[in-house]
Amino acid sequence: MIRNAWYALGFSAELSTGGLQGHQIAGHPIVAWRTEGGDVVALDARCAHKRFPLWDGRLLDGDRLECAYHGFCYDPTGRCVGIPALVERSQRIPETARQRAFPVVEQDGLVWIWTGDPERRGDDRPPRTPELDDAGWETLVTEPMEVAANYRLLIENLFDLTHFYPLHNGNIGSLADAKVPVEIERDLSGPAPVLRTIRRRHDFVLPPMTRDRFGLEVADQLQVHEMIAPSLFRVRIAVAPPGQLGTDAEQSFVLHQTITPVSADRHIWRRATSCPAGARWAADPTRSLVQAIFEGAPTVIEQDRWAIERQQAMFAYPDDGYREVHIKTDGAVVMARRILDEMERSDGAHLDAALQSPAQTRMQPNRRLADLR
Length: 373
Ligand code: FES
Ligand SMILES: [Fe+2]
Hints:
By secondary structure, the chain is α+β, with helices and mostly antiparallel strands. It contains 9 helices and 20 strands.
């Protein structure tokens, strides 16, 4: 797992005041809550006294956390401010009775947490997701899903459209998807490396679910899939009658997907679907387009989850001479692995130079997931 990165703790709406949440993020046990003042707090969940999980404690006055075992009480900075068993006036709260507090940033409808080295964070901010907090867009959010697979298998799935046939055949996929040429771009200049694939289709016969969403049999389609490594994946799809992309006839939606590793073989997948405000569903204009896309998603999501959880299970077997075979259309997946490998190796240092050097871009893509176990 990559230590030094921003990871999604949740959509803002998942964190309401008055309750404690337990998380495991990149191997760290974390207790989180929203204070009466509206700030989100995230502390190491192991009580400094005897490791009791603080997510099983309770909030006092909305802002202080009382451990359920012996009652050590912590303020939102993680400092211990009360110990019931200190009976004599001469006894002081030990300086070391302090929980590690993780940096948290709330922006664009998401709460992000930094679980890495505080020194490495510098001035880095989490990636932006502007459509999630913009009145010009309507957004629907899927419940967080726990997936029994390494986080990379989801990233690879999201880059890879060659699985649309057969995995999604009959809903969003067709055999033609597997053959669409892919343009690949990358931008390593920012704190979070970006890898982007672009697919352009012309006079394309839409698969059934897409046809139903947009009310078009044949269309031009632009599809941009973007990893903002390692924790955010953005998809933008625009569809229009042939020759009319970029005009008023274009319809589009944006998916933001956050990928938060729990452990080497588990992650949390969150999805938000956004459409321009007021866009209507072609099959029933009384309903919004975002609703139609959102309601069709569970079938597709379950197919993807089914596939990557089964892939993960196969890593239990020793390689024993096994090697993956990659074809040209796996190019983006191989590049994503290279970026993520380098992020793990460099532990958050700037990637640009490392990835430009051919000597350091050699990789063993068939081994990395196994190595993580
Ligand atoms: S373990 Fe938390 S107060 Fe003792
Ligand atoms: Fe898929």
